[in-house]
Task: structure prediction
Amino acid sequence: MIVADTIPGTHPTIQVCGSAFFCTFNLDTLISSAIAIVLTFGIGFGVAYRLGHGKPKKLQMVLELLLGYIRNLTRELVSMDGTDFVVPIAATIFIFVLFANWLDAFPLVPPVEPAAADINLTLAMALSVIVIVQWYSIHVLGFRGYLRRFTKPFELPLLARVAFTPLNIIEEVAKPLSLALRLFGNIFGGLVMVYLLTLAYTAFAGSSLIQTAISPLWILLLVFWKLFDVFVIGTIQAFIFMLLTIIYFGMAREGLEEEHHGAPAHSNELRRETT
Result:
């Protein structure tokens, strides 16, 4: 809904296996993320069905432009042979986060709320991305090359590279935290702003004359903020989450050029096929 009737950050919970911490789930996040997942799958399968049935629609053209842009971005930031693996992940993340953020544009009824306003969801997404990135790094570099990646910068002497290893490990651990907190902070901040605007309006509840005077201005301000927050900030945050995901996949290949034997044989075959 357009006004805030509850304090941001409060979530109705359900227990699925007792009172333990890992058995407690935020009901609004489950429902909102489920809606975003259904919309993401609906768009994907719907466009895929239209590819072989009938003429292309505007939605298909938009999705093809999006996929083309992500594919080119992946070729620049990752590699030619990484597009088939990275592009579907990046595109799915963008569309899901986009729908999860755009939910706030509709007159939602609790417990439906913007899914990314829950740190649990954004942290789970960030951890999933980082786990896949680590697997991809081992797959491309081999286990020896994967460990060697934590000794960058590679141009330094071996002893200096060993000294940089703790910093590289900290950098890798910080990736999911920054990825999760960036998305959560921006979406949650939008809810806080709506809540503060609501408090400012209700502060004049004792004076009906003042409320009547500022009511049109307050509605315009609130509508403008909601549109800006949802369609501008929400879209930018979905793009940033996708872009950082692609960048992390590119970083997962660091050291491949310096140590070619660290890459699996099938990776070299894929590179030869694409060239």
Q: What stands out?
A: The longest helix spans residues 158-202. The helical segments are 27-51, 58-77, 83-102, 119-148, 158-202, 208-251, 265-274. Confidence is low (pLDDT under 50) at residues 261-275.
